[in-house]
Design a protein that fits this description.
Blueprint: H1 8-31, E1 34-39, E2 60-61, E3 64-65, H2 66-76, E4 79-86, H3 90-98, E5 106-110, H4 116-123, E6 133-137, E7 140-142, H5 146-154, E8 160-165, E9 171-176, E10 181-184, E11 205-216, H6 232-241, E12 247-250, E13 256-258, H7 262-281, E14 291-294, E15 303-309, E16 312-318, H8 329-342, E17 350-354, E18 359-363, H9 370-375, H10 380-400, H11 418-437, H12 444-458, E19 464-467, E20 476-479, E21 482-485, E22 492-495, H13 496-504, H14 513-527, H15 535-562, H16 573-586, H17 593-600
Parallel strand pairs: 1-4, 1-6, 4-5, 8-12
Antiparallel strand pairs: 2-3, 6-11, 7-13, 8-11, 9-10, 9-11, 14-15, 15-16, 16-18, 17-18, 19-22, 20-21
């Protein structure tokens, strides 16, 4: 309440408050009359084959179709009605829109023949009234403030507002010093801009990119011929020739993605998932531009990112678009990660999964691997202490991780069995390492019986639990005094000996054999605290799990370095080969006589 007779400052403050209130009321009144159109009739040819079944406007971002995001944002900006033009798979868009309750009228208008941006706007002339209206492309994902854009348009007298920003790949709109648009690319007959933007101070023109958001006065419709395919750019050029220059609204500090291409769609999905995850990490943080850093990849084709918002960060892993049907690698990564985390195991917290794009957001645990820690540790006793701590995690993961583990979480195979060993370890070794890398010509059939015997002996164990299947030093992160397991997407049920062998024979570290033997003994002692252990039977299966693991390592390192040109793996091939030779020497002679002879000759 205002008390009259107070100081001039108080009275001045009252008028400021009153003016602000009147402005808010006036702006709300302006916004309430806005209508909008979403241009959604495109064929989506750059997104094939996905657009054969799903029209581009229904591509999901965090499970929400883009058209739904746009309609709801337009409503929040004050729109009183929205119309959507359709063509490709129009019935799917119609069905989706009819199934929503937006609280405002949302119509669709089918175009039997695509009319172009200008023709589409003219085709719904009966929808418009005497007020300015907004037109938005259906393939943009952005946080640009639409209400502010409309208010800006009402603040000037120019007939058009195009929302522009600096995005070099798309900078095709010429703007003068007053932010008026004077041309588009190299198009005539707009007044010709200079052939190239000039960087010096006082440059008269510059090039910016159109965001796909625009507001038009109804008079613009007079520049568009009826019933014809027509570009709105042609109408704007005609207007410029007539002396009616469109106005540019230049925005900054926002995000914007064009999902007209698969790269653009992936970028939009990354942005959305990263922001959702960062809101979980730092709910108090102010929205701002995200900072992205590419992380060093692994042996897969996945792409890793560290994403920053201020001092907070998360990690994103892009598995690529999932194939149709069945469980994919990203599914397994997310499902197994959630399962292990729920069991209290030290794995990164998973913040979200966007299946259509194959992206997962997870806790950022840093970059320090066990491999680096061990290599920087001079004391053998400290090295053993690190491994004992990791083995405690391994035992808990194997025993507790198996409880309630659903084989449906897995991809490729639900269990570590003979078929997996033969296909993804023995065959991998022969094809990628012996033949592809070493240049030999050895048929798998020649060694098939030996490989089957090795597989069966490795599987002859009572100690079945959850196995990571790539439990090595680069998949163990160290932060402070804690250890965390990553890259668990290959997990399944199998012999506990396999992960132990993966850890101890790891060529990234190449632990001395006496250290391996001591740790193996420690493992048996610690495991017996959880389950009964027959040391002799356990160790026999362990020896053959180690051989299988060695076959897998050499196959993978050969394939990655020779076929994928990932040369960082090649320096570790000699250590892996030395390990395999030693394992085969210790094996029973009848089990792998031919394989031993071939490997000894390498």
């Amino acid at each position: 309440m205002l008390t009259w007779g107070t100081t001039k400052d108080n009275i001045f403050g009252y008028f400021l408050c009153t003016a602000a209130s009147l402005t808010a009321i006036f702006r709300a009144g302006m916004m309430s009359g806005m209508k909008a159109m979403i241009l959604a009739a495109g064929l989506g040819t750059r997104l094939l084959p996905q657009t054969k079944k799903t029209p581009k406007p229904l591509f999901p971002i965090l499970g929400q179709p883009l058209i739904d995001i746009l309609v709801r944002r337009l409503k929040d900006a004050g729109c009183e009605a929205v119309i959507i033009n359709t063509h490709h798979l129009a019935e799917k868009i119609d069905q989706f829109v009819k199934g929503q309750d937006y609280g405002i009228p949302v119509y669709t208008r089918y175009e039997p023949t695509i009319l172009g941006t200008g023709g589409a706007i003219k085709n719904v002339e009966d929808f418009w009234d005497e007020k300015p209206f907004m037109v938005v492309n259906s393939d943009v994902f952005t946080n640009i403030d639409l209400a502010e854009i409309h208010a800006f348009h009402l603040s000037h007298e120019d007939p058009v507002t195009l929302v522009l920003h600096d995005c070099p790949p798309f900078n095709h709109v010429w703007v003068d010093l007053g932010d008026h648009i004077v041309g588009f690319g190299q198009l005539e007959p707009c007044p010709p801009p200079p052939p190239q933007p000039l960087p010096e101070a006082g440059t008269r023109f510059r090039q910016l990119a159109f965001t796909g958001i625009q507001i038009l006065d109804p008079g613009v419709l007079d520049f568009i011929p009826p019933g014809a395919h027509y570009s709105i750019i042609d109408a704007y050029c005609e207007m410029i020739r007539s002396g009616m220059t469109p106005k540019g609204r230049i925005v900054q500090n926002h995000y914007w993605h064009d999902i007209g291409t698969m790269a653009g769609y992936q970028g939009a999905a990354r942005e959305a998932l990263a922001r959702e995850a960062l809101e979980t990490v730092s709910p108090w943080a102010e929205p701002a531009t995200l900072a992205w850093a590419n992380l060093e990849g692994d042996g897969s084709d996945r792409t890793w990112y560290r994403v920053f918002l201020g001092r907070s960060s998360v990690v994103l892993v892009d598995h690529g678009l999932p194939p149709e049907g069945g469980t994919c690698e990203a599914d397994a990564f997310f499902a197994i990660g959630r399962h292990l985390h729920a069991k209290g195991l030290p794995v990164p917290r998973l913040y979200g999964y966007d299946r259509p794009s194959g992206m997962v957001a997870l806790e950022d645990l840093g970059d320090l691997h066990l491999q680096t820690v061990v290599r920087c540790t001079k004391s053998p006793a400290e090295v053993v202490a690190h491994y004992r701590a990791v083995m405690d995690i391994l035992i808990k993961m194997g025993v507790e991780g198996a409880k309630g583990f659903d084989p449906a979480y897995t991809y490729q195979t639900p269990r570590y069995d003979r078929d997996l060993i033969m296909e993804r370890e023995a065959k991998y070794f022969v094809t990628a390492f012996l033949n592809g890398y070493k240049g030999l010509e050895i048929g798998l059939e020649k060694l098939k019986e030996e490989f089957e015997l090795i597989a069966d002996t490795a599987l002859d164990t009572d100690h079945i639990g959850f196995i990571h299947r790539d439990f090595q030093s680069r998949n163990i992160l160290v932060r402070g005094k804690n250890y965390y397991v990553i890259d668990f997407q290959g997990g399944r049920l199998g012999p506990l000996q396999y992960d132990l062998a993966s850890l101890l024979i790891d060529p990234y570290v190449e632990l001395p054999q006496n250290v391996q033997d001591g740790l193996l003994s420690d493992y048996l002692t610690r495991l017996s605290e959880f389950v009964p252990v027959d040391p002799g039977r356990f160790l026999r299966a362990y020896q053959y799990c180690a051989i299988n693991r060695n076959l897998q390592i050499l196959g993978a390192f050969a394939f990655l370095s020779h076929e994928k040109d990932k040369k960082d793996f090649e320096p570790y091939i000699p250590a892996a080969l030395r390990s395999l030779k030693q394992r085969l020497q210790n094996a029973e002679p009848r089990v792998c006589r031919q394989l031993r002879r071939i490997v000894e000759g390498l």
